[in-house]
Design goal:
The complex is a heterodimer of chains A (about 475) and B (about 200). Chain A is of the alpha+beta class and about 475 residues long. Helices cover about 15% and strands about 40% of the residues of chain A. In chain A, strand 11 and strand 12 form a beta hairpin. In chain A, helix 2 packs across helix 5 and helix 3 packs parallel to helix 5. The N terminus of chain A is likely disordered. Chain B is α+β, with helices and mostly antiparallel strands and about 200 residues long. Classes of the chains: A alpha+beta (about 475), B alpha+beta (about 200). At the A-B interface, strand 10, strand 13, strand 14, strand 16 and strand 17 of A face strand 1, helix 4, helix 6 and strand 4 of B. Strand 14 of chain A pairs antiparallel with strand 1 of chain B, so a sheet runs across the interface.
Chain lengths: ~475, ~200
């Protein structure tokens, strides 16, 4: 315990010496500025976990230090109570609307993470329009009274199309700023700024960046009988239609850049492979007769793994970026589908019925050294390799229902993540801590989110859309 | 030849430019223009269509094109899938593309019909029930259609008259979550294409 305390003290000093930097270098869309103590991040995260441990120790005195991260204070266990005040606005009326929206989206992200409980806005005693955002100006007792341990405050300045946001994260008990960011962009960038800061708060708290500055794409029948692709943030209230094929659009997956989506569509009659960019422009990649299915860009964006019909079965191939055949990885009369890359791009996991029932297999990216991964159950499909590399998520049929499981990539004992309804199409968050998938629980089919313990499960899309096949992008940069 | 080279090398063909607001009509026009340009340049996408199977397009159908009267064509028009017709559907067990005795009897009769109507080609559609994974079911539907095609070819029907397509679980005949409904959906269906 002594060691942990010491760590906590060192942490406090590091944070005090932090302070805001100047506006940083330009990123895509959003310019991001000064994180206190940038570069010391890793150790600070660990130290923060130590602080969290001290706090959690009150509730879970028997906890061991090995369980600090994400377990004692983690999804589904005790949540860290945090207040997210609306940003103080300067500029026109729109700036204050934007300041409200920012805190709503940030709060929603933090709730979805499972680490936080965002305290209801109605309870806030301080008026964000008039109160300050420095430690000296904040009435921490007013925040402590409503049970907040953490507090987010900030300001938004809108002049013309130019948006500047400054946002800070405070420890209420210690009455001290723990970190902050400045963002600069256009007024449309407010949502990404909120997601970025949610990821940053998760970093302060757990030592690992959160997954929210990213996108989900999925298939949906909302609005018509046709299956179209839709894109949204994880928190979901910016849902946007991506295709207007009036046809069947299937199996979307992201280019590593997060700006283009591979998918299979019957728009030309045959199930061909296409790519659509976020502005809606569509290009065709493969239109070989029969299935052109399940395209997945390699992590470095150099080749596409896909499944094509041929040789009496469906085979895994590599296509170049123009859709030309680079290499056949499997050749047999069985079904081989749904390739998914290891994060280092050296291996693929896929589904095959070569042993009589659909099972998962891992092979090298040149098709060599094929080995069977799953041995329990007679229906294992839809593999998705974690971005951390250690786990593979997939779908397994248990007692007539389909559930999400994870299994170590090196083989081992599968662990069940879902229990209710039919659950399919798992996809990993960029930080490897969450899975999104489709589920029929509660009637209809919608997209859900789960952490790896399965304790926190949240619905991300409105019911009634028959949503399926979510694909989670990498972090946007 | 320059145009040809750029068509092949110059990256993916843009079927549709622009924003979300583009409607279906504009899209269709764009497709028509795209096809016309391809045709005029003499540089078709056929090179890419010589697929893994090496199979060429069947008669009565542009390679990869929409077959009139197919379940997809009907779906586009808001019509329900058809069952049977001059050629009876054949059905399959769950997660299987094996031809049962009953299926073989039906296919023998279908082969007879095809021998007597030699001007007709067919597209064999493979379908699955809703239980299971979309991609796996697409591959399963393809195996079902291929098993049927193989039987008919063995029975003396020219493979030139037989094309296959899989719709997986995408276009079910029946939408109730019952075994009898699922059984109807696990099928190969025949769409006639007149020469």
């Amino acid at each position: 315990m002594g060691r942990v305390c010491e760590g906590g003290l060192r942490l406090s000093l590091a944070l005090v010496s932090g302070g805001f930097g100047r506006f940083g270098k330009e990123k895509v869309g959003v310019r991001e500025g000064g994180s206190p103590g940038a570069g010391r991040g890793g150790s600070r995260g660990v130290l923060w976990a130590a602080l969290l441990f001290l706090w959690a120790g009150v509730l879970y005195p028997s906890g061991s230090s090995a369980q600090i991260r994400g377990t004692i204070v983690g999804p589904g266990l005790s949540r860290y109570p945090i207040a997210v005040a609306p940003l103080r606005a300067s500029g026109d009326e729109e700036a204050s609307v934007l300041g409200e929206s920012f805190s709503r989206v940030l709060g929603r992200d933090l709730e979805l993470s499972g680490y936080f409980r965002v305290i209801d806005r109605q309870a806030y005693l301080e008026d964000p329009a008039t109160s300050g955002i420095t430690s000296e100006q904040i009435d921490f007792r007013a925040w402590s009274l409503i049970g907040a341990l953490g507090l987010v405050k900030g300001m938004a300045e809108l002049s013309g199309d130019d948006l500047r946001v400054e946002v800070r994260f405070f420890d209420v008990d210690k009455q001290r700023m723990l970190g902050g960011k400045r963002y600069r962009g256009t007024r449309e960038d407010w949502r990404r700024m909120a997601h970025k800061f949610a990821d940053q708060i998760m970093y302060y708290m757990t030592g690992e960046r959160g997954p929210f500055d990213s996108r989900l794409v999925f298939s949906s029948r909302r609005g018509s009988r046709f299956k179209e692709l839709y894109v949204m943030s994880v928190e979901g209230d910016d849902l946007k239609r991506l295709t207007r094929d009036e046809n069947i659009a299937l199996s979307p997956s992201w280019h590593p850049s997060g700006y283009r989506v591979l998918f299979t569509s019957y728009r030309q009659g045959n199930p061909n492979l296409f790519e659509v960019s976020l502005d809606g422009a569509v290009g065709r990649l493969s239109s070989r007769r029969g299935l052109n299915l399940g395209g997945r860009w390699s992590p470095d964006g150099s080749v596409i793994a896909a499944a094509l019909e041929g040789g009496g079965g469906t085979e895994i191939v590599l296509l170049d970026e123009e859709g030309g055949l680079r290499k056949r990885l499997t050749e047999n009369s069985y079904i081989d589908v749904s390739p998914s890359w290891s994060p280092d791009g050296t291996q693929l996991v896929f589904c095959s019925n070569r042993a009589g029932s659909p099972q998962l297999y891992v092979m090298n990216a040149d098709g060599s050294a094929v080995r069977r991964l799953t041995f329990s159950g007679d229906y294992n499909t839809s593999p998705a390799w974690s971005p951390k590399g250690d786990l593979i998520a997939y779908v397994s049929r248990v007692a007539g229902r389909f559930q999400i499981f994870v299994i170590p990539a090196s083989g081992g004992t599968p662990r069940k993540i879902t229990t209710e309804g039919n659950n399919e199409d798992p996809t990993w968050s960029p930080d490897g801590r969450y899975l999104a998938f489709s589920s029929t629980r509660g009637g209809g089919r919608a997209i859900y989110l789960s952490d790896l313990s399965g304790r926190v499960q949240s619905r991300l899309t409105p019911k009634g859309g028959d949503d399926s096949a979510p694909a989670w992008s990498a972090w946007l940069e | 030849m320059n145009g040809c080279a750029s068509g092949v090398e110059g990256g993916r063909r843009e079927l549709r430019g622009g924003a979300f607001s583009l409607g279906g009509r504009v899209f269709r026009l764009a497709v028509a223009v795209f096809l016309a340009v391809l045709f005029a340049s003499g540089c078709s996408a056929l090179r890419k269509k010589k697929g893994v199977s090496g199979e060429e397009g069947a008669p009565g159908q542009a390679p990869g094109g929409l077959v009139e009267g197919s379940t997809l064509d009907r779906y586009k028009q808001g019509l329900p899938p058809e069952e049977g017709g001059p050629l009876q559907d054949v059905h399959f067990a769950y997660d299987s593309y094996e031809l049962s005795e009953e299926a073989r009897d039906i296919l023998a009769a279908n082969a007879e019909w095809l021998r007597n109507n030699s001007a007709v080609s067919v597209e064999i559609e493979g379908h699955c029930d809703e239980r299971g994974t979309v991609e796996y079911n697409l591959a399963l539907g393809a195996k079902r259609a291929r098993a049927v095609k193989e039987f008919l070819t063995d029975a003396g029907i020219s493979p030139q008259r037989l094309s296959t397509i899989s719709y997986g679980e995408e276009l079910p005949l029946c939408r109730e979550p019952t075994e009898s409904c699922w059984a109807r959906n696990r099928r190969a269906h025949f769409v006639l294409i007149s020469k």
